[in-house]
Amino acid sequence: MKVKNRLGEMMRQPGGRSLVEALKGAEKRLEKLSPDLLKGLDRAIARLEAGAAQLADPPNEKALAEVYQGSNEIIALAGLVGYAAIDEVAHGLCELIDAFTAEGQWNDQAIRVHIDAVQLLRALPQGDKAGREQVLDGLRKVWNRFGVRQPAAPPPAAPEEAAG
After folding, report:
1. Which position among 63, 78, 94, 103 has the lowest Cβ density within 10 Å, counted as fewest Cβ atoms?
2. What architecture is domain 18-152?
3. 18 vs 5, 6, 30, 78, 134, CA distance in Å?
4. Residues whose CB falls within 8 Å of the CB of residue 149, separated by 6 or more in sequence, listed in order
């Protein structure tokens, strides 16, 4: 049985938009949404911070869920607005929480350093590549110490980061 690929067929039709044109259009639409996406990122960071403020040792399940959900929201938004480093930290935080939960261990300091890193990276100027790398290098040591799988390297810098 062969399944028809309607998208593939549409792309092969003459007179359609090229991939480059479609990507440029998407980038323009994303630029228009950028202020709202940044507000969403800031709300997600605030949610992360609020959950972290309620954590204890051992962690309160509700607060831990709030931290995890805040991290997931950050993952969904950070890369879209040129904050790949924050995306990487949020991924690392989720991996760390997953590892701690699976192993029945907890290290409050390791969690809190991620929260601090998110706050710091959001406050750093977009063009401060050395500062971002210094923060990420420190977190990579935390990930290694706890045997956490390191998040994939962030995608290439967004235009505003590269120009920064």
Report:
1. 103
2. Up-down Bundle (1.20)
3. 18, 16, 18, 27, 40
4. 95, 143
CA distances from 69 to 6, 13, 74, 98 (A): 36, 42, 9, 13
Looking at residue 162, what is its pLDDT? 42
159 pLDDT band, cuts 50/70/90, is very low
Alpha helices of 54-128 — where are they, by DSSP H? 61-78, 84-103, 108-123
3-class SS of residue 45: helix
Q: What is the pLDDT of residues 100-147, one digit of tens each?
A: 999 988 998 999 999 999 999 999 998 899 999 999 999 999 999 998
Longest pairwise C-alpha distance within the chain: 62
pLDDT band at 87 (very low <50, low <70, confident <90, very high): very high
Cα–Cα distances in angstroms (integers) from residue 124 to residues 46, 93, 133, 142, in the given order: 17, 19, 11, 21
pTM for the structure as a whole: 0.75
Question: String of b and e for 98-119 (b: at least 16 CB within 10 Å)?
Answer: ebbeeeeebeeebbebbbebbe
